[in-house]
Design brief:
alpha/beta; Rossmann fold; 14 strands; 15 helices; binds NADP nicotinamide-adenine-dinucleotide phosphate; 6-stranded mixed beta sheet
């Protein structure tokens, strides 16, 4: 058993080392309890603030990291060390999934389209006698989401980092049903995809302010200490490959969920952005939220951008044409297609023919998954390692 100080969570390398083949228990407490304990047993201050304000500040600053670090959470407010130790032992023996919740949840998963081999592994987690109390579940929530490659990537990451977790598909038309199963199974986290990224917001406890609230969409929910917190990592997946284009002139094609994250990323990089959409009124609504200009797809020729970001699904389906003609592209332009299946879309093919710099949707997928993994576990996986593990 290793008892750490509270600051251990701030370094992702600590998390990577401590988390391997172990169980991390978060002993948390309310602010009154922490204040009373620190008054009795003072320690050097971390800020210049009065004690209570310092505690509130540190709790606020580190909340996301503590939640990421926790496999099990124990509220120690008003408990003795012995009682807390007894709770740790109880959870290590029993886990956090009540036996009576297992069977109904298995029925839920049988209605989704989980591939047979993956279903076998899921049943091993849920239905083995006796089940391993420490194996935790996570998954992708969407409808449909059976096409998602997320489970293959996350399960490969769990194996690589020695984490006792299993990631599966939570496919159901009712988001409430998905969240109910997730809570009954005490999942650690969910990746949220079409069509639930907006719908999930009123159903969780907290939404991260800086990006997720501004974008109005959540693609990551972390469950810890009885709280479900929503984040958006899509925008980070768009921003990262474009940092060298700060201040560029950009055209964003599309005005749906992915476009909202992209608009936030482009604005964050001080780009002069025009949003063009099949339904111009939707482009207008999004543009007004982020201080961009807007128009119809046919307005493209008057703009001459340095960067084009495609946030429409054009290119996903066999037979789809590129959203832009070859003569609308020019060498030196950067073309970022958010579509990632197939990895090379007709737009990327056209852009390569013309001599543009191209960025595929795989880069966004890797970037958003990397940030999700960090939010779930506090571990910062190198970009290239995720690329290696992609299915
Ligand atoms: P969405 O909310 O349904 O929005 C789709 C947008 O595309 C809307 O603006 C829609 O225009 C436009 N559109 C749809 N069909 C079109 C067509 N045939 N011609 C022209 N415009 C069309 O979808 P989303 O969630 O934003 O996803 C968009 C794409 O981003 C998907 O292909 C998805 O795979 C990709 N994506 C990639 C990642 C990644 O990690 N790489 C992550 C998230 C999303 P209207 O307003 O006129 O309907």
């Amino acid at each position: 058993m290793i008892s750490t100080g509270g600051g251990v969570v701030t370094d992702p390398v600590n998390m990577e080392l401590l988390r391997r083949d172990s169980v991390m228990v978060l002993l948390h407490a309310d602010i009154d309890t922490i204040e009373a304990r620190l008054t009795k047993k003072p320690r050097p201050p971390l800020t210049g603030l009065p004690l209570r304000e310092e505690i509130a500040e540190m709790m606020d600053r580190r909340r996301q990291l503590y939640h990421a670090a926790a496999d099990l959470c124990i509220d120690t407010s008003g408990t003795t060390p012995d009682a807390a130790a007894a709770m740790v032992m109880h959870l290590l023996r029993q886990g956090t999934i009540l036996a009576k919740n297992r069977a109904p949840c298995i029925s839920f998963f049988r209605t989704g389209r989980i591939p047979p081999k993956c279903m076998e592994r899921l049943l091993k987690v849920l239905d083995e006698t006796p089940p391993d109390p420490l194996t935790r579940l996570m998954g992708v929530a969407g409808y449909p989401c059976a096409h998602s490659k997320g489970p293959f990537l996350f399960n490969a990451l769990f194996a690589a980092y020695g984490l006792d977790y299993h990631y599966t598909w939570f496919e159901d038309p009712e988001l409430n049903e998905i969240l109910s199963v997730a809570r009954h199974l005490d999942v650690k986290g969910l990746s949220v995809t079409i069509p639930f990224k907006q719908e999930v917001i009123p159903l969780i406890d907290e939404v991260e302010e800086h990006a997720a609230q501004q974008i109005g969409a959540v693609n990551t929910v972390v469950f810890a200490c009885g709280t479900a917190t929503g984040y958006n990592t899509d925008w980070i997946g768009v921003r990262k490959p474009l940092v060298d284009l700060k201040g560029a002139k950009a055209v964003l094609l599309g005005a749906g969920g992915a476009a909202a994250g992209a608009a936030f990323a482009l604005t964050d990089l001080d780009m002069e952005t025009t949003i063009l959409n099949r339904t111009p009124a939707k482009a207008q609504v999004l543009a007004e939220r982020f201080g961009c200009t807007w128009g119809a797809l046919s307005d493209f020729d008057s703009i001459h951008p340095d960067l084009v970001v495609n946030a429409t699904p054009l290119g996903m389906n066999p037979g789809d044409l590129s959203p832009l003609r070859d003569d609308q592209l020019r060498p030196g332009m950067t073309v970022f297609d958010l579509v990632y299946t197939p990895p090379v879309t007709p737009l990327i093919e056209a852009a390569r023919r013309v001599g543009c710099r191209t960025i595929t949707g795989t880069e966004m997928f890797i970037g958003q998954a990397r940030e999700q993994f960090y939010l779930f576990f506090g571990i910062d996986v190198p970009h290239e390692k995720i690329r290696e593990l992609l299915p």
